[in-house]
Every structure is written in structure tokens, then in C-alpha cells.
Design a protein that fits this description.
Layout (H helix, E strand, L loop, with lengths): L1 H7 L5 E3 L6 E3 L9 H12 L9 H12 L2 H15 L7
Antiparallel strand pairs: 1-2
Helix pairs in contact: 2-3
């Protein structure tokens, strides 16, 4: 739910797909958000089956680690530092 809020700025709403019986997001992911990566995350977490998906979380982590290589890691750190400058100082 936290990842969804960071992406959309609102709370998650899900619907059940009548043809597959799986839960899915009610909102559409934008194509420039690495759509396949996020769809895999939300689909796996919303439809988690302990018996059939033992390595699901590990596979998700590997997929995100591969996407966030060294260059993107520096870019993310830069953006986070910019955001931290806007936070109020401790009193």
C-alpha cells in the first residue's frame, strides 16, 4: 500500500477480475513508471498464494535490484537529498 501511495498519491483500490478471479488495481499504471515491474509487484502481493509462489518475494527483489543499478541508485539518492532539504529542521 505504501508503494501505491507514493506512485499515485492516493489510497489503493482493488477490484476482482471476473475472468481470472485475481485481484488487480483499479487504477492504470503509467507507461513511464516501469509498468511491468510495478504490475508484477502489485499482482504478486495482491494474489499471493503461499503454496505456489514460494520464491515470489525473492524474485520481486531481484527484479527491483536489477532495475536499480548503480546509476539509478545515485539518481535516487540525489532526489532523496533534494526532498530532505524541504523537511522541517529538528527543534
Amino acid at each position: 500500500a505504501s508503494a501505491f501511495i507514493l506512485l499515485f498519491g492516493s489510497h489503493m483500490e482493488v477490484v476482482r477480475d471476473k475472468s481470472t478471479g485475481n485481484w488487480r488495481l483499479n487504477k492504470i499504471l503509467r507507461r513511464y513508471w516501469q509498468k511491468d515491474l510495478w504490475q508484477s509487484l502489485f499482482h504478486s502481493l495482491l494474489n499471493f498464494d503461499l503454496g505456489s509462489e514460494r520464491n515470489c518475494l525473492r524474485d520481486l527483489r531481484v527484479a527491483f535490484d536489477e532495475y536499480i543499478d548503480e546509476d539509478r541508485s545515485r539518481e535516487i539518492a540525489t532526489h532523496l537529498n533534494q526532498l530532505f532539504t524541504h523537511l522541517p529542521k529538528k527543534r
